[in-house]
Design brief:
The protein is an alpha/beta fold. It has helices at 24-37, 51-63, 77-87, 103-110, 114-129, 147-159, 176-189, 209-218, 240-249, 265-276, 297-305, 333-342, 349-365, 371-382, 429-440, 485-502, 507-516, and strands at 2-3, 5-8, 41-45, 68-74, 94-100, 134-140, 164-169, 197-202, 223-226, 256-257, 325-327, 369-370, 392-401, 404-413, 419-425, 445-455, 462-471, 474-482. The chain folds into three domains: 5-276, TIM Barrel (Alpha-Beta Barrel), CATH 3.20.20.70; 325-380, no CATH class; 392-504, Double Stranded RNA Binding Domain (2-Layer Sandwich). It is built from 17 helices and 18 strands. Bound molecules: 3-methyl-2-oxobutanoic acid and zinc ion. Zinc ion (ZN) is lined by residues 13, 168, 170, 201, 203, 237.
Length: 517
């Protein structure tokens, strides 16, 4: 079977989803999980775009050693230099340069003629190869480009040293037949195409990203790009877990293999959803909560008689465990530490102790602690950055009655160590709590979204709150979990504020500093 490379861009294109803003620890945690999932290339970010991205990419290149790490750059020497600074310590660094080739983009965005674009692309690929062993060149908006211009340009950038050619459907406009035809045409008409990897990169604006990616593979693509849960700009990117499972379940039609470890899908999906705050729709293919639920009587009856009647994917294939009961009140430190390792976490001594304390507190209130509960607690602790600047929740109380005004009293420690205590009111308990926090926090806050969900099932389930807000103009998301919905909400609010501090410094100084090292 032919091999298809998997290029994951969750941390770059995925992170471009509105409202998603991961910090360094969160990016690293996702990167480690993507390595376990078995991707061949991981695009860790766009180093020249922000200080956070630069540092996130550098950290991943330093710490994640089993997979090629890529960084995005415009066709600009300064972007390429910055990307090199971020990636040079990686084991197998790759640069990803993009330059638009469609008439619409060349005329209106780049304001360049096709010949100027061609020369610039060739020059930048040649320059990038003086630093990077691998260079992917993307013809942005390839699916709306003139085919003969595309063919001419691809031949030239391969001669200049590109090792991967990517043909993105940037605006999610193409159809499977059309996109497949594009790959066939390029394979048949670019004389040196066999020297490189040919890659597909699809967006989901018309809901066809996965189908388009599969059509590309059938027509000569030997690399596919996408994100976990299909997160990304606008309607998102092709969902890698869907492509992986389609290639497995329909290998009669798609005789291709990848290096992906399918039973890591669920954990990867949960981690990305948890850290980005982008909930997975219940009916989402492969990873949605309902993907394996059979509701109608006829279906249940069929599945009981023989699962293959209505079940084409087994939950086990993608790592969904049917019995994930784990620990309770009497579980000791040793068993807990084993479980942490089994769940794939490597925690520092301090964080392990913090996690054990949280676990013990939870067992006082909840009879059975499941893998899902532990996953939520461990992710929260593992990705809690040790930023100096932080608001810490000390205590709070909310008074609510149907006939009086909801009032919240909160005690906080401010980033400079000052103890604060204030009370305020609102139309409901959550609003009273948020109004009080808002009064106590110096930064200007605008809340744009608030969501509450339960982790697992049952009356005593853990609550998870997610907020989206701007803090002094910086958009951030925040999350918090607790058995109490108000505590989870307060934690999410403060988590968002604390995360905003991380995104404040400008990149320039850091890059110059890194370059002079
Ligand atoms: O969709 C796109 O065109 C991109 C490029 C940066 C490759 O993400
Ligand atoms: Zn894209």
């Amino acid at each position: 079977m032919a091999h298809v490379n998997v290029f994951d861009t969750t941390l770059r294109d995925g992170e471009q989803s509105p409202g998603v803003n991961l910090n360094q620890l969160e990016k690293l945690e996702i990167a480690k999980q993507l390595e376990r999932f078995g991707v061949d290339v991981m695009e860790a970010g766009f180093p020249a775009s922000s200080q956070g991205d630069f540092e996130g990419v550098r950290e991943i290149a330093r710490k994640v050693r089993g997979v090629s790490i890529a960084g995005l750059a415009r066709a600009k020497k300064s972007d390429i230099d910055t990307a090199w600074e971020a990636l040079k310590e990686g084991v197998d660094p790759m640069l990803h340069i993009f330059l638009a080739t469609s008439p619409i983009h060349m005329t209106h965005k780049l304001k360049k003629t096709p010949e100027e674009v061609l020369d610039l692309g060739v020059e930048m690929v040649r320059y990038a190869r003086t630093k990077f062993p691998k260079v992917e060149w993307s013809a942005e908006d390839a699916s709306r480009s003139d085919l003969d211009f595309l063919v001419r340009m691809i031949e030239k950038v391969i001669d200049a040293g590109a090792t991967v050619i990517n043909l993105p459907d940037t605006v999610g406009y193409t159809t499977p037949a059309e996109y497949g035809q594009l790959f066939k045409y390029v394979r048949e008409n670019v004389p040196n195409i066999d020297k490189v990897t040919l890659s597909a990169h699809c967006h989901d604006d018309l809901g066809m990203a996965v189908a388009n990616s599969l059509a590309a593979i059938e027509n000569g693509a030997n690399q596919v790009e996408g994100t976990i849960n299909g997160i990304g700009e606008r309607a998102g990117n092709a969902a890698l877990e869907e492509i992986a499972v389609a290639l497995t379940i329909r290998k009669d039609i798609y005789p291709y293999k990848t290096n992906l470890v399918l039973n890591e899908i669920k954990r990867t999906s949960d981690l990305v959803s948890n850290l980005t705050g982008m909930a997975v729709p219940r009916n989402k293919a492969v990873v949605g909560q309902n993907a394996f639920a059979h509701e109608s009587g006829i279906h249940q009856d069929g599945v009981l008689k023989n699962a293959s009647t209505y079940e084409i994917i087994t939950p086990e294939l993608v790592g969904v465990k049917s019995n994930n009961l784990v620990m309770g009140k009497h579980s000791g430190k040793h068993a807990f530490n084993d479980k942490v390792k089994q769940l794939g976490y490597e925690l520092s001594k301090d964080k392990l102790l913090e996690a054990f304390t949280s676990f013990k507190l939870l067992t006082d209130r909840k009879k059975e602690v499941t893998d899902e509960d532990l996953f939520t607690i461990l992710t929260e602790i593992q990705t809690d950055s040790d930023e100096v600047k932080k608001y810490v929740l000390k205590a709070f109380q909310v008074q609510y009655g149907t006939s009086n005004l909801p009032t919240a009293t909160v005690a906080l420690v401010a980033p400079d160590g000052t103890k604060l205590e204030t009370a305020s009111t609102g139309q409901g308990s959550v609003e009273a709590l948020f109004n009080t926090l808002d009064c106590m926090i110096q930064e200007k806050i605008q809340l744009s979204d608030y969501q509450l969900s339960s982790v697992g099932r049952g009356r005593d389930a853990l609550a998870q709150a997610n907020v989206k807000m701007t803090v002094d103009g910086i958009s951030v998301n925040g999350r918090g979990s607790s058995q109490d919905v108000l505590e989870a909400s307060a934690k999410a609010f403060l988590n968002a504020v604390n995360r905003a501090f991380y995104h404040k410094e400008p990149i320039k100084d850091k890059v110059i500093q890194a370059q002079s090292n």
